[in-house]
Design goal:
Elements lengths: L2 H6 L1 E4 L3 H19 L7 E2 L4 E2 L21 H11 L9 E5 L12 H10 L7 E3 L5 E3 L6 E5 L10 E4 L2 H13 L13 H14 L2 E4 L6 E4 L5 E3 L14 E6 L7 H4 L4
């Protein structure tokens, strides 16, 4: 990794007209996806958040049929920081509406308070199991957010804890290396993760990330991040949304590659 991405765990990529055209087309498709009956299950938090996993119809190169190709500048940023561009999944369409957050179905009061006060901070791909443990079920290579709408910092921005990827990377590697590498995907990381997360809240700077269509955000896969509250009284029209397309391809080499510093 280079520059601020290596030091802070995230970076904002400069405006590119090709990225803006991709985002415009993605949002046109995204608004249809939000209304699609077969995707209605992705509405959560009392209809204030459309989770939208794999909701956009891009191909493995990131391009749209009958639409713009995936921007070369984004490919170059990935290659420069993480190596060759992998095949991409259909992008997540994450849309937040005025009133967020509301409780999610099945969410405990404690979990909802964490959503309100700590932005539901998490590491993508580290999933909670039925036994309460946390395991790496999706070893992402990196995370890219491509804004689809114009928004202010009061409208539920992405938030990151700068430098958190270095703390989490160290504790994850130490915990995993106590086990045979072939078993790493089944190692419970809950205890080391929660301890490190507490340290991150106390020592790392929480930064709201504001980017607009034509820009993009690239995150290290182990950066702690979340979604801030949509501030009351700000842009409360039903037509207002904060929409971001997320790409999070998984590493073919699995958890052994995910645990490496890069």
């Amino acid at each position: 990794m280079v520059g601020t991405l290596g030091d802070l765990g995230w970076t904002k990529l400069s405006f590119d007209e090709e990225v803006r055209r991709w985002a415009l087309h993605a949002w046109q498709l995204g608004q249809k996806a939000m209304q699609a009956p077969d995707l209605a299950h992705w509405w959560a938090c009392e209809n204030t958040w459309f989770v939208g996993v794999d909701a956009l119809p891009n191909d493995a190169s990131g391009s749209f049929a009958q639409g713009p190709r995936f921007p070369i500048s984004l490919q170059d940023s990935v290659t420069r920081n993480f190596g060759p561009m992998p095949d991409l999944h259909p992008a997540q369409l994450s849309v937040v509406c005025p009133g967020y957050p509301k409780p999610r179905d099945g969410e405990t009061p404690a979990a909802f308070r964490f959503r309100q006060t700590r932005d539901a901070a998490h590491v993508d791909g580290l999933h909670r199991g039925d036994d309460g443990g946390r395991r790496v079920e999706e070893p992402h290579a990196w995370i890219m957010g491509i804004p689809l709408t114009h928004n202010t910092k009061e409208q539920a921005p992405l938030v990151v804890w700068e430098g958190s990827h270095m703390i989490l990377g160290r504790v994850f590697r130490a915990a995993l290396q106590k086990h045979p590498e072939k078993c790493w995907n089944s190692v419970d990381l809950k205890d080391v993760y929660l301890t490190a997360r507490k340290q991150i809240f106390e020592t790392c700077q929480r930064v709201p990330v504001l980017a607009q269509p034509g820009e993009a955000v690239l995150l290290h896969r182990q950066t702690l991040h979340g979604v801030a509250t949509w501030e009351p009284g700000v842009g409360e029209s039903p037509s207002e949304h904060r929409a971001i397309a997320y790409l999070r391809p998984c590493l073919a080499e699995g958890v052994s590659a995910w645990a490496m510093p890069n």
